[in-house]
Design goal:
heterodimer; A: alpha+beta; Uridine Diphospho-n-acetylenolpyruvylglucosamine Reductase, domain 2; Uridine Diphospho-n-acetylenolpyruvylglucosamine Reductase, domain 3; Alpha-Beta Plaits; 5 domains; 7-stranded antiparallel sheet; 18 strands; about 40% helix; B: alpha+beta; 3 domains; 4-stranded antiparallel sheet; 12 helices; 17 strands; EC 1.-.-.- (chain A); FAD (chain A); Putative FAD-linked oxidoreductase (chain A); FAD-bd_PCMH (chain A)
């Protein structure tokens, strides 16, 4: 992965930059010692590492604004960081950049049940937003698998999804307003606690902009009343095609489960060895969860069973209580751990139209043979968001590169069938150079035009999202304007 | 379309069905030639259509498969007295979202999966796609929903559609004051019974429940037990169409659409000589008045700015009044910057959004 050469002039004035940052932040909030900046050298995409020039941990919007203004004046790039759980390298630093971590900003600012919103500082973790309202039977819907650790700031940057977004939508559908600090230190309020934008939907474009338009320090999030209960059902099939057809029929029948999860044979076997959840040994497994009162759950499950039985399942297992429900989820929730246990893996997240599932799974199987690398599939089938896990050996020379080439081919396939490169992880550096497979130069120019407006100097989260070749002109123009 | 925009020598007024009373200055650019459903996959809940496709044609195609546009786009013809055929491009350009906004299915912008548009220089640009989860690059889809054609002429839109509910009933509460109505709607919306519509007009407060038959019966029973004197209306489709289309205000000279925090609805209209209808549990206020409304317009926009939200003049007796609420300076700078990028010559739909 090519990154721009560090700017020597910035490296040379490190001491001055650190001094200026220390002048506006409390003691201990500026990390500049080389041994300590190493803690920020990567996120969850650990194949790429680079310690930053420095890292800062501000506690207020004002401090964020001061940091950004100083960096803007000094021409220093800033890499915003939530909890560092990005799988796409969204928080990977460059050697001449300052990491701006929001971890110390984790307060709940306001909770309003009558009007169904919560306002938080964005360093707060996803799960602890729900934690703040759970005792009153409310929840925050988007639930990325990293929700124990990931910050709302990162969720907004990547427009994160989760298992339950089939019913509740992703971050952008549950975000009402933000306090955004622009690179020059300007603080703007976009949206509020009301349900739509006043002018053009700037909030809509900020969400999912991967920290390249500004730093979001506070967010107003929609909260919902918890359903009365939920239960999963497990259905096994002897082919991916049939399981895919079953998913499509369920959706078409008007049942809206909160989750439809799909696991293929390699994934079932690996998790069974690891977690011993008692899954049937079959080609494809569906775990479908529905919500409501007991009578409502029963009604929805009856419809799902009727459709599932039409496709001749090899197994159909219902959960009669919470214990059995937990057993059904056990394997699915252990899937990534199980894979990590047997091998290094790369997790992709391309999305495809649900109707293309059988074809895409078959093609991935064929490509797996061509590349000589195993693939396990575990994903959100209801919305077509795939998660192929390519297994490889990071210590064997050439395997990472082979794995990346295979991954790129899978993502190109997703685009070919009408899908996209990334459904919830974001582009980051990982998929940056594949962007031209999904978008024309004019499409990319239109996106970069938005960056020109919010961050004219192109200092925020550099070298992500857009292929370097495509953004060259914009970065050169920004430098020339200095 | 791209050639027409590229070759334009002056301002262009983009026109879909022309039913929403928002024709800008300049040469009229019709989207009607771009018509037709290009892809419809009921099993994937997605539909792609050219921007000039009549909404009625899309709704008929969906109806045949037992599906619908979950965001219930308003038909402006009744309240505005306009004629013509509403188009899907117009719906998207104005982010027209009906009563189901309170449910997780959300607004028009939440159901919009992808767009193709022609920018102010005549370049064709695509963003998003036809899948439900897509974070590939910046979300220009949201930016286009509700931009009223100022950031480009929409040529194709891709939408998430939804199954039509098997059953729908509405709980009706009679005679509540505006404040009590907001409180009742909040109770409904914060219950676990998945209310998909919460409105108040005339003397009636409505709470809608949709889904499978058994589930709807159960929830309607539970919800009624929460309120004194609740009545269950089996067929309230007509009432919800009135809410969606604001048809009760057809006889007024001026109609505003105010988006705010539900709990501030009362304060927003208190002491004013106006008629009021609430949707979105009070988060959407429709205000109607007769006669000279310039003073009232200023008052509503000031209150919206103070209480949080914005007031838009949807029906106006005076074309000189600015329809949209002025934005705070730093936001306005961003908006102007974006418009200058997408329409560098400054020719698209001038005057609509200021």
């Amino acid at each position: 992965m090519q990154m721009p050469e560090p700017n020597g002039a910035i490296l040379a004035k490190k001491a001055r930059i650190v001094d200026r940052l220390q002048a506006v932040l409390p003691a201990g909030a500026v990390i500049h010692d080389e041994a300590e900046t190493r803690a920020y050298e990567c996120d969850a995409l650990t194949a790429y590492r680079c310690p930053p020039l420095a890292a800062v941990l501000p506690s207020t919007t004002q401090e964020v604004s001061d940091v950004l203004r100083i960096c803007h004046e000094e021409g220093v790039s800033v890499v915003p960081r939530g909890s560092g759980t990005s799988l796409a390298g969204g928080a990977l630093p460059t050697a001449d950049s300052v990491i701006l971590g929001v971890a110390r900003m984790n307060a709940v600012l306001e909770t309003d049940y009558d009007n169904r919103y919560i306002r938080v500082q964005t360093g707060r973790t996803n799960l602890s937003v729900t934690g703040a309202v759970e005792a009153d039977d409310f929840f925050y819907a988007p639930d990325p698998s990293s929700q124990l650790a990931c910050a709302i700031a990162g969720n907004i940057a990547m427009n994160s999804g989760g298992a339950h977004c089939l019913k509740y939508g992703v971050t952008t559908n549950n975000l009402l307003g933000v306090t955004l600090v622009q690179m020059d230190g300007t603080v703007v309020e976009l949206g509020g606690a009301y349900m739509d934008a006043g002018g053009i939907d700037l909030l809509g474009v900020v969400c999912g902009s991967e920290g390249q338009l500004g730093v979001v320090t506070e967010a107003t999030l929609r909260i919902l009343r918890k359903p009365e209960g939920a239960l999963p059902v497990l259905i096994g099939y002897d082919s991916n095609e049939v399981a895919g057809a079953c998913v499509s029929d369920i959706i078409k029948a008007g049942v809206l489960p909160v989750a439809i999860e799909f696991m293929d044979a390699p994934c079932i076997r690996a998790t069974e060895d690891f977690a011993k959840a008692g899954y049937p040994d079959c080609e494809a497994l569906l775990i479908i969860e529905v919500e409501g009162a007991p009578c409502e759950i029963e009604e929805q499950l009856a419809k799902i069973k009727e459709i599932a039985l039409r496709h001749n399942p090899v197994e159909l297992r219902e959960a009669r209580d919470a214990d059995e429900a937990a057993r059904i989820w056990l394997g699915r929730k252990s899937a990534f751990g199980a894979m990590g246990n047997i091998n290094d893996y790369m997790c992709l997240d391309g999305t495809i139209p649900v109707t293309e599932l059988p074809y895409v799974l078959r093609r991935i199987g064929e490509m797996s043979k061509e590349y000589g690398l195993e693939v396990a599939n575990v994903f959100h089938a209801g919305d077509g968001n795939m998660h192929p896990l390519i297994l490889f050996n990071a210590n064997a020379p050439g395997q990472l590169e082979l794995c990346e080439a295979f991954g790129a081919d899978i993502l190109k396939l997703c685009v070919e069938v009408g899908g996209c490169l990334t459904g919830e992880h974001g582009v980051g550096i990982e998929k940056r150079d594949l962007m031209s497979h999904q978008y024309t130069p004019a499409d990319l120019e239109a996106q970069m035009a938005v960056k020109d407006v919010f961050d004219p100097k192109w200092l925020l989260n550099p070298a992500k999202v857009f292929p370097l070749g495509a953004s060259d002109g914009h970065r050169a123009a920004a430098l020339a304007a200095e | 379309m791209a050639e027409a925009v590229a070759g334009a020598t002056g301002p262009l007024a983009v026109r879909g069905g022309g039913t929403r009373g928002l024709l800008a200055e300049g040469a009229v650019l019709e989207t009607g030639g771009l018509s037709g459903i290009t892809l419809y996959e009921p099993g994937a809940l997605t539909l792609v259509a050219q921007a000039g496709t009549p909404v009625a044609q899309i709704e008929a195609a969906l109806e045949a498969e037992g599906q619908m546009l979950a965001f219930e786009p308003m038909d402006h013809r009744g309240v505005l007295g306009s004629v013509g055929e509403p188009t899907i491009g117009g719906v998207v350009a104005a982010n027209v979202s009906g009563p189901r906004r309170v449910a997780p299915s959300g607004a028009c912008r939440d159901c919009l999966l992808g767009v193709r548009f022609v920018d102010g220089l005549g370049q064709v640009i695509k963003n998003g796609g036809r899948v439900m989860k897509n974070v590939t690059g910046y979300d220009l889809v949201k930016l286009q929903a509700g931009a009223y054609g100022t950031l480009g002429v929409l040529t194709e839109v891709s939408l998430r559609v939804a199954p039509k509910p098997e059953a729908s009933v509405t709980l009706v509460l009679e005679g509540l004051s505006l404040g009590d109505a907001v409180a009742a709607m909040s109770r409904g919306l914060t219950s676990p019974y998945q209310v998909t519509g919460a409105a108040h007009f005339g003397e009636r407060t409505l709470l809608r429940i949709e889904g499978f038959e058994g589930s709807v019966r159960y929830r309607a029973g539970q919800l009624s037990a929460m309120f004194d004197g609740a009545r269950i209306e089996e067929d309230a489709a007509g009432l919800w169409a009135q809410v969606r289309d604001v048809s009760g205000f057809a006889g007024h000279d001026a109609v505003w659409r105010i988006s705010t925090v539900p709990g501030r609805a009362l304060e927003m209209v208190q002491g004013l000589d106006v008629d009021v209808m609430l949707d979105w549990g009070g988060g959407l206020i429709w205000v109607a008045a007769r006669g000279d409304v310039a003073g009232l317009h200023g008052t509503l926009q000031q209150r919206a700015a103070r209480l949080g939200g914005h007031a838009t003049l949807v029906k106006t007796p005076d074309p000189a009044l600015p329809r949209f609420q002025p934005e705070p300076a730093p936001v306005a700078r961003l908006t102007q910057g974006i418009r200058a990028k997408f329409d560098p010559r400054g020719i698209l739909n001038l005057g609509i959004m200021g």
